[in-house]
Amino acid sequence: MTKSVVVLTGASSGIGEATARLLAQIPNLSLVLVARNQQKLKQLAQDLKQTRDLDVLVYPLDLTQLESIPDLVEAVRAKFGRLDVLLHVAGMGDFKPALEQELKNVETQFQVNTLSGIALLQAAGRQMVTQGEGKLLVVASMSAKLPTPQSSVYAASKSAINTYASVLGMELEPLGIPVTVVNPGPVRTPFFKHSSAMQDYIKNVDRFAMDADQVAQKLVDLVVRTGPMPREVNLPFTMRLAYLGQRFFPGLACWLTVRFANFK
């Protein structure tokens, strides 16, 4: 039986690492681990191989180097002959008032959260069109659906990749290549260790936050799913309800957000 080849970005920590550990338990699967930290990737690959005899390719890559992203897909094609699933988890963010966001930081967030995603989707999508099948999965954020004060740039970058993926799905679904965006709410991961403001935020929303394993399980379910794929998955249920409320009552939702949901 031909093994499915899954490329996983952001694999060295957080949701990406949790997803890699779950994927390693699935038979007939080859895994490509992508992140900047080569040492962490190698250690993770060793851990996964202890679970079973798993085909793992470690591919260190700084996703801000956009010109290098097509080389990743070519390396996967050269080693495995195909690419069945792209699971793009990598992301970064910083919370500050909108007028205090330095343009360099704005650029970095859009490079990681938006431009790298577009480059990955393009390169992987072209390979999947050539082989006639595949599946594209992108982790964005509920911030794209429910932006809150001090998340202007992060929310905007995630909203942009949401929109791009939505249009890409319209174009590729007729070819048998579904595109799904997963929007998690707050998740307890090292993502929030980059600044004191982000550490304070995750503490304030802890009662609403999910564990990385919860999101990882949803991602793995989508990887192995054989039926029709959703175009969008919003997590958790409470934030999905809040998003529906925001769509129907945007003015009220904005008022409530500023007064009762501004945890940053």
Automatic annotation (TrEMBL):
Transmembrane segments: none annotated. Residues 4-190 form the Ketoreductase domain. GO terms for molecular function: oxidoreductase activity. Gene3D superfamilies: NAD(P)-binding Rossmann-like Domain. It holds the Pfam family adh_short. SUPFAM superfamilies: NAD(P)-binding Rossmann-fold domains. InterPro entries: KR_dom, NAD(P)-bd_dom_sf, Sc_DH/Rdtase_CS, SDR_fam. GO terms for cellular component: membrane. Keywords: Oxidoreductase. Belongs to the short-chain dehydrogenases/reductases (SDR) family. This is SDR family NAD(P)-dependent oxidoreductase. It comes from Streptococcus danieliae. The lineage of its organism: Bacteria, Bacillati, Bacillota, Bacilli, Lactobacillales.
